[in-house]
Amino acid sequence: MEPDEPPHNPAARQRQVGLIIVATCTSMSLAILVLLPLVSGLINLLRDILGVLILPFSFMFGLGGDTQEQSPALLRLLSDMGLQTQLHPLRLGGAAVLELVAVFLFVIAERLGGRTGYVGACAASAGAIVLSGLPLATPLLPAILTEGVFLLNPPSPDPD
């Protein structure tokens, strides 16, 4: 070790790793919460448009019948996306807001110290998991575990 290198602070490293984990998991979860209903709506729209476009040809060639049989691949794709895509938009919006609040509280708790911010971050993450449902909130599990670890064993403050 060279004499002009600053000493490594393990608490600062712990805070950096915790912040990276929480920010990454929350951003993945936010992307899923926002994009999944949009993709589901687009696929529903595509199914309806294709159903209307195929309808005249099905009548011309005597293929008329149930429109559900005309797009089995789209129906299978919609069913594979799960029931969570049909949640009320306010629930998903509330979950997204709670995730943002959790990250904000986690960063504030890291900068100012104390356990109150970590408690708030854990509570906001738990609320987001409850509102969005466990399948959609799976990317949040590492974030809430990290917040819990920081709550139980907060890193020591930087020596000033």
Helix content: over 70%
Proportion of residues in extended strands = under 5%
Number of helices: 5
For the report, how would you describe the main beta sheet?
A: none
Secondary structure category = mainly alpha
What is the β-strand count?
0
What does the radius of gyration come to?
24 Å
Whole-number total of structural domains: 1
On the 0-100 scale, what is the average pLDDT? 79
Oligomer type: single chain
Bulk shape: elongated
Descriptive account of the structure:
The chain is mainly α and 160 residues long. The protein has one domain (20-62, 73-152). The protein has five helices and no strands. The two termini are 22 Å apart.
Break the fold down into its secondary structure elements and pairings:
Blueprint: H1 10-60, H2 72-81, H3 89-112, H4 116-132, H5 141-152
Helix pairs in contact: 1-2, 1-3, 1-5, 3-4, 4-5
Can you describe this structure in just a few lines?
The chain has 160 residues and is mainly α. Helix content is 71%, strand content 0%.
